[in-house]
Amino acid sequence: MKPKVTMIAWNQNDNYVVTAVNNHLLKVWNSCTGQLLHDLVGHADEVFVLETHPFDSRIMLSAGHDGNVFIWDITKGTKTKHYFNMIEGQGHGAVFDCKFSPDGQHFACTDSHGHLLIFGFGCSRPYEKIPDQMFFHTDYRPLIRDSNNYVLDEQTQQAPHLMPPPFLVDVDGNPHPTKYQRLVPGRENCADEHLIPQLGYVATSDGEVVEQVIGQQTIDQDEQGLEPSILDGMIRQLQLEQDQRTGADQESASSAPQNGEGTPRRG
User: Fold this and answer.
1) 261 half-sphere exposure, CB direction, 13 A CA radius
2) pLDDT digits (tens, 9 = 90+) for 245-255
3) What pLDDT score does 258 carry?
4) CB–CB of 97/71 below 8 Å?
5) What pTM, to 2 d.p., does this model score?
6) Quick one: CATH architecture of 5-120?
7) Distance of alpha carbon 1 from alpha carbon 35, whole angstroms
8) In this predicted model, which residue has the larger pLDDT, 97 or 186?
9) Cα dihedral 59, 28, 78, 66 in deg (nearest 10)
10) CATH 2.130.10.10 domain span(s) along the chain
11) What is the mean pLDDT of residues 18-27?
């Protein structure tokens, strides 16, 4: 196999250059003399991620399609830390990108299965407040166009940008508890009863009937005795004012003199 360089990165102080080669090796070079200093062995597939530490010139991070993430000491040519991105029941997940935080204490990776992996020092408690699977219940819902070619949500017949904030659900469409619903912008201060979505039965493409979030508490809020959405109230008020202005214009036009002797006055 003809060797090819897949990625290249300078270290923090520019004294070293690290290249990733398609034979799964990482090579550390002296940037002034071009001398090969170290061969870093560990990856089992091609590497497309090389990240230097923001202030420690010794540290370099590498990650690849084999699911491996390595922290290297490139001055010694040694491996400092290693993580293998194994996903239960699905094998390993290829790591597509990694970035250090500005303070150098954390780094984050994304993989081929849509996961965000966060590594660093300290406690992971701040990251435990969210569930493993988070989707909006409106994700992947079909859209239609009206007679004016405007986009509408097929189910509610509303423009998507005028719909209330969506609910958080898992991958199967089951809504999360109310404490997670408050993480959605616009639902931070809602009462518990307003954070419980309406559920219904929806037929999937396979013909299976599943229970999912099917609607928002909008039109039926008044009938159910629920507090109406502030946004919905403003929209209805604006529409009412526009209707009143339109009616007043039409009334003034109909009462105008036909011989042109006078000018009608608008109240």
Assistant:
1) 2
2) 777 777 666 66
3) 53
4) no
5) 0.51
6) 7 Propeller (2.130)
7) 23
8) 97
9) 90
10) 5-120
11) 91
